[in-house]
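Lecture notes, unit on protein representations.

Consider one protein chain, 166 amino acids long.
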Amino acid sequence: MAGEMEYTGTQVNYFFVCHRKLWLFTRDITFENENEAVRMGRLIDSYAYPRQKKQIQIGSIKIDFMDTRRGVIHEVKKSRSIERSHVWQLKYYLYWLKTRGMTDMTGEIDYPKLRRKKTVILEPEDEVAFEEIFRKMEAIFARPTPPNVIDKPFCKKCAYYEFCYV
């Protein structure tokens, strides 16, 4: 990883949700603090799993909580509506940790509101996929203007909705 840019889990998540949102977020254009859905997610995160140490910052990544005895990192999410992005965000955390010597870790996405969990494992093909993901992310960052609006059903609940549509 020497010489590689440090990405955040949020950036990887946004890559799978919306390239425009990723571009804006990476330029510190954020609307998360005013968004009801984001506030609800933060509230769920703060009240779920009260005995766990939360928001563990390690380098550029911020893990919701970690079970060090079992070698499991946890990501708490409000809903499964964009689960693919949640899975890749957690796979990125596993990848990031592995490149720094923390091997044999697994992940778990916790949906406390739904009372569901999803186990996430970093597969060898995921590590290869990250090379392409990072290349595409860099191309998005290099754009002089934001990518086009994607106009998906979940856009209506996005923190960037008014910026993109109004």
